[in-house]
Specification:
The complex is a heterodimer. Chain A is mostly helical. Chain A has helices spanning 3-25, 28-45, 55-82, 90-94, 102-105, 109-119, 123-134, 139-146, 150-179. Chain B is built from 9 helices and 23 strands. Classes of the chains: A mainly alpha, B alpha+beta.
């Protein structure tokens, strides 16, 4: 890899890419490994980048694909070794609770609850929420990264926020039930 | 019970409060790790045994044997102890009617006479290929004279769409008998697909009206997704068999009451979506699928358009693009029923399963647009799997061919 290109990409985007991967995959080791794969893919296709989208959008679409590939591979491995894979089990198979970022554990309860709730969303929906509200991509940029129409981004965004509210409300009810407050 | 503290604004605000999680490695450290990883990958690539060759060699030997004496192939009973050993003669010179466009019917198979420029089919032998964690069932470009091809559709496990799975049945069977044989032979579970809705209905046909008749148990199709998937399954399967109409019955009486679509007695058959995607299922099976999983209602109007979209990222629930990012097309031109595809300089191709799937997706898309033959120009390698890129190739008649 041409070092000066890497240096520039690192300075401009690295921490953001890493953060995206760690929030997607919820494991520091995996994110550290996969971010290397992102740069390797970038190296292989950098001269083909046509500038149709911004460089940042392009990098995130590569990071997204790398993350999805990893999730898919984990899914296959789990199928092979642990029997039938259930989408609902994905979080148990991919999350390493003892490796949650310290940064999250140190946060207030709302952040921790929302972080947990995000895990229950479909992978693509979680991705979109991360892109929109943590990385600040516009509807158009998110559509470009996800390969969706802008209409679909709006619809899924709305639906996922609604789903998140439902999950958070349910967990609140469960908590109240277990505390005997209702 | 306390009122929920969560609403849309609160969720968005909280997301924005998510902490920054930073990579503690220095730029130099990371760069070294990337360099090492690239070095390792390069070494592994060079030292990797060429797994493709044994299967390919076996296919070539069979192909040559078949050319010398087709009767040998008829008597050939290959071991069936694993997919890598699957094989069957597909070297018949039979082909479909030239005026067929988008209707790959099993009934229209007829022997091809000698042509001035016969497609190079000498090594187009179907087999299943296993490579690392993927398994791929090669399609067929020529249908043996004594067979008919049945392509039945199965829902993927996320109910996002339906997936074609092909089977070679005896030619003497009616289309419904052939379909029933296919449905009883194909294992959706092994492929990582869901059960076909056609497995639980009574099938018959009205040949005079070219109609596939389904007698459905009342209430057996549940939910709007279930109905959508069922109709897609029926539509695409009926199309592959060459039917023009589907008639619905329930308990022997005309019509079926769909809970969301309402009552329905019949439906015109329409072609599946154009363009081709790939689906990697959770059993590690790679399958070609009609249509582009781009979520943007993309309906390609030309083969060029389709190939353009087939190289776009289409990730999600196992779906992916079939044309890798290092494959570029310079020009696509047609001459009657033949299309010529020229690769650009800088395209890299490899002789492995991924590229067999890529090539077949192009041949499948060419079939969707009514072409019969494909020429490739400027391909950086001579051969991918059983396909010689230097000769004219017939289009793909059926994808994902399963052999019992």
């Amino acid at each position: 890899m041409v070092e000066h290109i890497f240096n520039r990409l690192y300075v401009d985007y690295h921490q953001s890419l890493y953060q995206f991967l760690i929030y997607m995959l919820r494991d520091r080791d995996t994110a550290e490994e996969l971010v290397q794969d992102v740069y390797i893919k970038v190296m292989h296709s950098y001269d083909k980048f046509k500038g149709d989208s911004s460089e940042k959008t392009w990098l995130f679409s590569i990071a997204r694909n790398v993350a999805i590939d990893h999730i898919r591979k984990s899914k296959r491995q789990n199928k092979t070794f642990f029997g039938v894979f259930n989408v609902d089990d994905r979080k148990d198979q991919l999350v390493h609770p003892d490796r949650l970022p310290d940064e999250i554990l140190e946060q207030n309860e709302s952040v921790r609850q929302l972080y947990a709730a995000l895990e229950q969303c479909k992978t693509e929906h979680r991705e979109l929420i991360l892109l929109r509200y943590i990385h600040g991509f516009s509807i158009r940029e998110s559509a470009s990264i996800m390969g969706w129409t802008e209409g679909k981004v709006k619809t899924v965004q709305h639906r996922t926020l609604k789903t998140l509210k439902g999950i958070l409300d349910d967990s609140k009810k469960e908590e109240e039930l277990s505390n005997g407050t209702i | 019970m306390g009122q929920s503290k969560w609403n849309e604004e609160k969720i968005i605000q909280t997301l924005r409060e998510f902490p920054k999680v930073e990579d503690s490695r220095s730029k130099e450290e990371l760069f070294d790790q990337i360099q090492n990883k690239m070095g390792q990958e390069e070494t592994e690539k060079k030292s990797k045994p060429f797994r493709f060759m044994p299967v390919l060699a076996a296919a070539c030997i069979l192909a040559i044997a078949a050319i010398i004496s087709p009767t040998i192939m008829d008597q050939f009973d290959l071991p069936k102890d694993g997919v890598s050993q699957e094989n069957e003669s597909a070297l018949s010179t039979s082909t479909k009617s030239p005026n067929e466009k988008d209707t790959p019917t099993s009934e229209q198979v007829e022997p091809a006479g000698p042509t001035e420029e016969a497609p190079d089919t000498s090594e187009v032998v179907p087999f299943a290929q296993v490579e690392e964690e993927y398994k791929y069932h090669v399609g067929i470009t020529e249908i043996p004279e004594d067979k008919q091809v049945v392509t039945a559709y199965y829902p993927d496990q996320e109910a996002m769409g339906v997936v074609p799975v092909s089977f070679l049945a005896e030619k003497g069977l009616s289309r419904v008998e052939a379909l029933e044989e296919a449905l009883s032979t194909i294992s959706d579970e092994e492929l990582g697909l869901s059960e076909s809705g056609l497995s639980s209905v009574n099938l018959s046909e009205n040949p005079n009206a070219n109609t596939l008749v389904l007698d459905i148990k009342p209430g057996s199709i549940q939910g709007s997704t279930g109905e959508r998937i069922f109709v897609q399954t029926v539509q695409n399967t009926a199309f592959s068999l060459g039917y023009e109409t589907i008639a619905f019955m329930s308990a022997g009486k005309p019509g079926y009451e769909f809970s969301h679509f309402g009552p329905m007695e019949s439906m015109e058959v329409s072609a599946p979506e154009k363009g081709v995607s790939a689906l990697l299922t959770n059993t590690g099976t790679l399958l070609l699928v009609n249509g582009l999983q781009l979520n943007g209602n993309v309906e390609p109007e030309t083969l060029e358009d389709a190939l353009h979209w087939m190289s776009k990222d289409m990730e999600g629930f196992g779906y992916q693009e079939t044309i890798p990012e290092n494959v570029f097309f310079k020009e696509i031109s047609e001459d009657g029923k033949k299309v010529t595809i020229e690769f650009s300089e800088g395209t890299t191709l490899e002789d492995n399963m991924k590229y067999v799937a890529m090539l077949e997706s192009i041949l499948m898309a060419a079939h969707q647009f009514g072409y019969e033959q494909v020429d490739f120009i400027n391909a950086p390698i001579e051969q991918i799997g059983p396909y010689h890129l230097s000769g004219t190739l017939p289009v793909l008649k059926a994808p994902n061919v399963i052999r019992p």
